[in-house]
Amino acid sequence: MDHFANRSGSLHAEDVPLTAIAEAVGTPVYVYSVATMKRHAEVMLDAVAGCGSGEPLVAYAVKANPNGAVLRVLQGCGLGADVVSIGEYRRARAAGIAPERIVFSGVGKTAEEMAEALAGGVLQFNAESIEEARMLSAIADAQGKSAPIGFRINPDVEAGTHAKITTGTADNKFGIPAAEALGAYAEAERLPGLKVQGITVHIGSQLVSIAPLEAAFRRLGELIGALRAQGSDIRLADLGGGLGVPHGADQPQPALPEAYGAMVRRVTADWNCRLVFEPGRLIVGNAGVLLTRVVRVKPGASHPWLIVDAGMNDLMRPALYDAWHGIEAVTPRGAKATVNVVGPVCESGDTFAMAREMDAVEAGDLVLFRTAGAYGATMANGYNSRPLTPEVLVDGDRWALVRKRIDLSDCAEVDPDWR
Ligand SMILES: *Cc1c(COP(=O)(O)O)cnc(C)c1O
Questions:
Q1: Which of 24, 282, 357, 409 is 20 to 30 A from 255 (CA-CA)?
Q2: Whole-angstrom Cα distance, residue 355 to residue 339?
Q3: What pLDDT, on a 0 to 100 scale, did the predictor assign at position 249?
Q4: Is residue 390 packed enough to be buried (19+ CB in 10 Å), middle (13-18) or exposed (0-12)?
Q5: Distance between CA 231 and CA 325 in Å, rounded?
Q6: Closest ligand 1 atom to the C-alpha of 64?
């Protein structure tokens, strides 16, 4: 459920007309709804309430949308953070998320990143190799600290999602193979400076079915038993993220968080572990839209080209993983048309939709891309010397610019003095 709806002929974000935001800020612009984020956080918290021993932690995957204003809203909802870089760690802390509610994931944490996060505090480092554990051990030993650690297990299950957002098969770079887990934990137990306490898994993103998640969690459950038998005191199981979100009525309908929670409750009943969840997309995906303006409509061989002022640099998902986004006129004229929706960037991949039946629009009309709150602005870049897209947060009838449009060309370039 979201709060972007047509009111008296024109789409609003909560109580704010999108036309007013486009007028004031210009386009393209990302618009986020606080009420939608809060609702999704609540649905997720409710779905996993009472799962595992102790209070479950819902650690929002910051990479999905790291805007500080978004993080502060989610912190207020009681979410922790799953971070994959020290930049994300700092953002989470700046938003008021307590260190004991932060897990540090990622396959390439550097020594500097680990040292800073250890000094600042984390609930757990999710290590992705024994080599990483050795590095963390040396850093913790030097700081005279004990680093809480769990290993990310690669369960070798197919997530049934797009290849570029699958992370839990043997051919993905993530985690350690289940077959090597016992050896890795045994070595970690012998290393100084480590508190071996957890285990984690994350098999991919935009999952429609929870069956692959259940298969992965069952493998994790077997490992927890084997690890305890080997002497490791596993108390924290981090089940990752990956739950898909609905993209439209005629698109695949992902399992609901309630069904996910019921499955988790069933599978983890005898684990005797505190549980952590890392949803990203589920919380913010449908809480954001990308607002863009039609530059012109150009005749095409099969269908007209609808050229909008947002490009693949603003919203990479269609180019990167063939993602489908709902596309609508902000103020529909009533008629429908079949068009190819493209951006201005000089790449054939700068295509948002081919042969899409949608509201008929004309040059100058406002159009929005739905489900753009996750992996949207955060992936934006300056290709074709385009500025970074601004972001707006809406709360009821109030709205605020929460990131300015950034022109990178007057930002970081330096002329060499030997020119
Ligand atoms: C990306 C990621 C997530 C979040 O995935 P969603 O599909 O957005 O829920 C969670 N955990 C890890 C380790 C990730 O890399």
A1: 357
A2: 5
A3: 85
A4: buried
A5: 48
A6: 8
